[in-house]
From TrEMBL:
Keyword entries, A-Z: Membrane, Signal, Transmembrane, Transmembrane helix
SUPFAM superfamilies, per the entry: Multidrug resistance efflux transporter EmrE
Presence of the UniProt keyword Cytoplasm in the record: no
Cross-referenced Pfam families: EamA
Name recorded for this polypeptide: Putative DMT superfamily transporter inner membrane protein
Species, as recorded: Ruegeria arenilitoris
Key word Transmembrane present: yes
Length: 280
C-alpha cells in the first residue's frame, strides 16, 4: 500500500506539470522554451538546496550523468519544441506510446520479460488513452513535431530506466538537473524564435521546476528500483487522465461520457497489469 500511494503521488506530480505548463503557455504568460529553461533551473536550485546542506555530494562528473542528464535534456527539449506544431492530444499519445514501447523493449532485453497480464493491461490502457486523446479529423500531423515527440518519449524512457541503478535518488536527480541545465538552455536559446515570460509565467515555471518536477522526479527515482520495468511503464499512462480530470476540476473544462469511459479503460488496464492475482 505504501508503494502504491507513493506511486500515485508521483503520477499526480507529473500530471501537475502538464497543468502548470498549459496554464502558462495557453494563457500567454510564457512561451514553451522559456518555461522549460526556468523549469530546469528551479528544479536544479531546489534539489541542490536539499542535497548540499545534509552533506550530500553532487556527482556531476559521474558516468551516470551521460544517460541521466542526457536523456532528461532530450525529453525537455523534444517535449517543449514538439508542442509548437503538434496538437496536445496527439503529442501525448505519441509520447506515451513511445515510452511504453521503449520501456517494455528495455525490460525484455535485460531479462525482465513482461507477463501476458502486463502486456494486455498496457494494451487496454493505451486503447483507453487513445479514445480520450485522439484528435479530430482536421488535425494535421507535422513530421518534425512528431519526430521531436518520439525523441522526447525515448528520452523519458531512458531517464526512467537509468533511475533503477541510481544509488541516491535525491542527489542523482539533483546532479541530472544541474548537468541538464546548460544543455537544455543552450539548445532552446539557440532554437527559440522569440522569448516571452511574464511574472505569472515565471511563477508557474518555478513551481513546476522546483516542486512537481524536481521533487517529483526524485521520488520517481526512489520508487523505480521497486517497480518492474513493465509496471513502471504502464502506470505512467494514468498521467494524461489525471491531468484531464484536474483540468475539469480546476480549469472548468468539460466532462464528457467519452472521457469517463476512456479513463475507466486506462485505470482498468493499469489494474490488470499491476495487481497480482493470489492463487489459493
Amino acid at each position: 500500500m505504501h508503494l502504491f500511494l507513493l506511486t500515485a503521488l508521483t503520477m499526480c506530480a507529473f500530471a501537475a506539470n502538464s497543468i502548470l505548463n498549459r496554464l502558462a503557455v495557453e494563457s500567454g504568460a510564457s512561451d514553451p522554451a522559456s518555461f522549460a529553461v526556468v523549469r530546469v533551473l528551479c528544479g536544479a536550485l531546489v534539489l541542490c538546496a536539499l542535497v548540499v546542506p545534509r552533506g550530500g555530494t553532487l556527482r556531476v562528473f559521474d558516468r551516470r550523468r551521460v544517460i541521466g542528464a542526457g536523456s532528461l535534456s532530450l525529453y525537455m527539449v523534444g517535449f517543449s519544441v514538439a508542442y509548437l506544431s503538434l496538437d496536445a492530444g496527439l503529442g501525448a499519445l505519441i509520447l506515451f506510446a513511445v515510452v511504453q514501447i521503449s520501456m517494455f523493449l528495455a525490460g525484455t532485453l535485460t531479462g525482465a520479460i513482461p507477463t501476458f497480464r502486463q502486456v494486455a493491461g498496457a494494451a487496454i490502457a493505451m486503447a483507453g488513452l487513445a479514445w480520450v486523446l485522439w484528435p479530430g479529423a482536421e488535425v494535421r500531423v507535422d513530421p518534425t513535431g512528431a519526430a521531436l515527440m518520439v525523441a522526447a518519449g525515448v528520452g523519458w524512457a531512458a531517464y526512467s530506466i537509468a533511475g533503477r541503478s541510481e544509488p541516491d535518488a535525491l542527489a542523482g536527480t539533483a546532479s541530472n538537473f544541474v548537468v541538464a541545465l546548460p544543455v537544455t538552455a543552450g539548445i532552446l536559446v539557440a532554437g527559440a524564435p522569440a522569448w516571452h515570460l511574464t511574472w505569472a509565467g515565471l511563477g508557474l515555471a518555478a513551481v513546476s521546476g522546483g516542486m512537481t518536477s524536481g521533487l517529483g522526479y526524485a521520488l520517481w527515482y526512489r520508487l523505480l528500483p521497486q517497480l518492474a520495468p513493465a509496471v513502471a511503464a504502464v502506470v505512467q499512462l494514468s498521467v494524461p487522465v489525471i491531468a484531464i480530470i484536474a483540468g475539469v476540476a480546476l480549469l472548468g473544462e468539460q466532462l464528457s461520457l467519452r472521457l469517463m469511459a476512456g479513463a475507466g479503460l486506462v485505470l482498468g488496464g493499469i489494474a490488470l497489469a499491476v495487481v497480482r492475482v493470489r492463487r489459493r
